[in-house]
Amino acid sequence: MITAKSFVERAETLDQNDPLASYRERFYIPQHQGSDSIYFTGNSLGLQPKTTQNKIQEELDDWAEFGVEGHFESRRPWFSYHEQLTEMIAKIVGAKPIETVVTHSLTTNLHLLMVSFYRPEGKRNKVLCEKKAFPSDQYALESQAKFHGFKPEDVIVEIGPRDGDHLITEQDIIDKINELGDELAMVMIGGVNYYSGQLFDMESITKAAHNVGSIAGFDLAHAAGNVKLKLNEWGVDFAAWCGYKYLNSSPGGVSGLFVHERHANNKNLPRFAGWWGHDKETRFLMEPGFNPMPGAEGWQLSNAPVLGMAAHLASLEIFDEVGMDKLIEKRNKLTGFLEEVINEISEDYKDKCTFEIITPKSTENRGAQLSILAHGQGKQMFDKLTEQGVIADWREPNVIRIAPVPLYNSFNDVARFGQCLINAIQ
Ligand SMILES: *Cc1c(COP(=O)(O)O)cnc(C)c1O
Questions:
Q1: Which of 9, 179, 203, 256 has its CA 20 to 30 A from that of 238?
Q2: 186 in helix, strand or coil?
Q3: Comparing C-alpha atoms, which of 297, 302, 327 is closest to residue 46?
Q4: Predicted pLDDT of residue 352
């Protein structure tokens, strides 16, 4: 019989050999009965870096000291605040600085980008998205279809797993793109599926979309800060993500968008405009006639919410120090260890229940998250996990989503999770 002790011993060696182990100290770990909880929901809300408070306090101090003059006089002038975040976020998503900007929230950005890039014309009016997309994305797509006078069911085409399967076959996506051909106006898919944790081959999808004359856009809510992204190299037209999941930028925090450089100077793209997207040299002349900033900055509407931006800055500084490659290296080991622990428990306790990991096995096709079908178990088992200090996500009827995050989760967290799981099924 597998014992929790063997997990703890294996974790000890893994933690000792982890070059990123010390980063856990840089975050506040939520407490449970006086000790660290097992926080596996960084895919939903990332933890708070200990530097965040000071970054926000500095802006409060500058606001107190300078008032409106802080736009130009403060230590990080608010007028150009977003510019300090650009290079750091560009590295995370594999973009050139002109292609990204930190601004607004995710769903807002998706709408702004679709206003520009979903441009149905004649029979080319279809949108391809994944079945059971995150609800906000579904509503955004439906309302964009209606905005152009369509019935959503006439233009939105969904691609899902084959019967009895949990993952979408990549070839099925490509085949569907080819089948839609000159009727396809836009592909808009989550880069990492929020439910299954499946990471899609965005390069192939983009290529296939472009081959039939379609735009390719991605929602990277579960991808940014989690998987290797090369948006520029892949030729993706547009993308948006949120800053508060893997990027730890505070609840509902500011997010980011990407527009490929090939669109950077296209002033003819329709867009919903605001003054912060207007050429910064003439912005304060307050003259009529919108003249967009080149690149992603041209999609900004409003002056930046500096307190939220400060929180994002604190987190991006940590990402910049570590780099995505090292994070991904640890991510593969950490999620791999979690996979081992779950599979060993599942094998040992198969008389009582089995755990089926529906997330792809290959590290090329997933990020940090594992989604687990708990056969023979209900919400009761999940509640027993919660009682023991495991913070995870439960979806009816029986799916547990857990994401150990390489920046602040340890191998010991995984070992303790194994122990909690054994306790919960006994
Ligand atoms: C988290 C998430 C959202 C949330 O959107 P907000 O505008 O940030 O509230 C939207 N789409 C996906 C795929 C998500 O995972």
A1: 179
A2: strand
A3: 327
A4: 85
CA of 21 to the centre of ligand 1 (A): 29
pLDDT at position 288 is 87
In this structure, the answer to whether residues 135 and 275 fall within a common structural domain is yes
Q: What's the pLDDT at 204?
A: 98
The residue range of the domain holding 402 is: 4-48+323-425
CATH of the domain at 418: 3.90.1150.10
In the reported structure, the alpha carbon of residue 314 is separated from the centroid of ligand 1 by a whole-number distance in angstroms of 21
Domain check: are 315 and 234 in the same one? yes
What is the rounded distance in angstroms from the CA atom of residue 61 to the CA atom of residue 45? Answer: 27
Of 132, 139, 194, 369, the one to substitute when testing ligand 1's pocket (max ligand atoms within 8 A of C-beta) is 194
- pLDDT number for residue 3: 73
| Residue ranges in the chain whose pLDDT is less than 70 | none
Same domain for 294 and 383, yes or no, is no
How far apart are the CA of 89 and the centre of ligand 1, in A? 18
Q: Is 241 in the pocket of ligand 1 (CB under 6 A)?
A: no
Instruction: Examine the domain organization and report whether 388 and 340 are in the same domain.
Output: yes
Residue nearest to atom 1 of ligand 1 (CA): 221
pLDDT in the model for residue 353: 84
Protein residue with its CA nearest to atom 15 in ligand 1? 221
Ligand 1 pocket member 111 (CB < 6 A): no
Distance of CA 257 to the CA centre of its chain: 12
Global pTM value: 0.97
Q: Is the CB of 134 under 6 A from ligand 1?
A: yes
Domain match, 162 and 221 both: yes
Q: 343, 413, 322, 388: which is closest to 15 by C-alpha?
A: 413
CA of 38 to the centre of ligand 1 (A): 24
The reply to whether 302 and 338 lie within a common domain is: no
Position 215, amino acid: I
Shared domain for 152 and 202, answered yes or no, is yes
User: What CATH number is attached to the domain comprising 136?
Assistant: 3.40.640.10
* pLDDT tens, position by position, 66-113: 999 999 999 999 999 999 999 999 999 999 999 999 999 999 999 999
Q: Count up the domains in the chain and report the number.
A: 2
How many Cα atoms sit within 13 Å of 244 on the Cβ side?
Answer: 12
